[in-house]
Amino acid sequence: LRKIELMISHTVRPMRLLIPHADYKALAELHNAGAVRSQKTTDDGVEVQANVPMRMATAYERFLTTAFSA
Predict the structure, then answer these.
(1) What is the DSSP letter of 68?
(2) Backbone angles phi, psi at 36, to 5 degrees
(3) Of 32, 52, 62, 69, which one's alpha carbon is 20 to 30 angstroms from that of 12?
(4) 70, 26 in Cβ contact below 8 A?
(5) Are 9 and 27 in contact (CB under 8 A)?
(6) Left (φ > 0), alpha (ψ -120 to 50) or beta: where does 69 sit?
């Protein structure tokens, strides 16, 4: 199991994101990649915790956040 976890850690990047409603396509792409672990809709956009594939991670850095609503 540890070997599998190690392999996965090199292929995905855990990210906390705030995706504005206007960028719904970006959220849809994460869902299509099976990357979304959880999401919550807020007034500012959609808060997402995701395991983003490394090939996609750079494109999602603009949505990085540390501030999630309670």
Answers:
(1) -
(2) -75, 125
(3) 69
(4) no
(5) no
(6) beta
Rounded to two decimals, the pTM is 0.80
pLDDT tens for each residue of 33-65:
989 999 999 999 999 999 999 999 999 999 999
Is a pLDDT exceeding 70 seen at residue 9? no
CA distances from 60 to 29, 36, 49, 67 (A): 11, 13, 12, 16
The pLDDT of residue 68 = 64
* Mean pLDDT value across the chain: 87
